[in-house]
Write a structure and sequence with these properties.
InterPro entries: Homeodomain-like_sf (IPR009057), HTH-type_TetR-like_transc_reg (IPR050109), HTH_TetR (IPR001647), Tet_transcr_reg_TetR-rel_C_sf (IPR036271). By secondary structure, the protein is an all-alpha fold. It has helices spanning 12-30, 33-40, 44-51, 54-78, 83-92, 101-116, 118-145, 154-175, 180-192.
Amino acid sequence: MVMAGRPRGVDDAVILRAAADVIGRVGPVGLTLAAVAREVGLVPGTLVQRFGSKRGLLLALAEQSAQDADALPAHVRATHASALEALTALVVEPMAAMATPETYANHLAFLCIDLTDPEFRAHALTIHVARGRAVGELLTEALASGELRAGTDVTALAGTVQAIVSGAGLNWALDRRGTLGQRLRQELAHVLDPHRPPRDDHDPEEP
């Protein structure tokens, strides 16, 4: 008798995206292998075979997130006309899945694991360093191309950008005005605008 085998055509990347979606709904504590397996049409035993345990799955997700953070800067720079446009995308795109304060809170709970568990923290630090480096590189390019005023301290500005991004999410989750993407764009603009060169608002047709 020939028995049907378990589905094997689901890539790990699909499973990890499903795990991120489940975290957004129930948080890392509420995540189970069974819930992720249902999301992708597998049985929990398949996830055990691939990742070993819930912790193994979460570590794989953290590692994948670190790899994505390395790849994102090149992607946004290739798809935007200017360095500051690319910087805005770099800030906003990773937050796209956090459409509600509840989803944001559930992903923030994952960050709490990152801060207290050394294995998870290593991946979180990789993401932090990669994004900080990308922010600095884009600001340096913006300075060279004239999008920022001459003399702008891009190192200090990069640190401010990273701090603002973290704080904007928390403020938005509390006051719930607009969307997270709108808040991030708004706060980033507030940080960058004083460093942009003055615009010539003079109308040449006026005397």
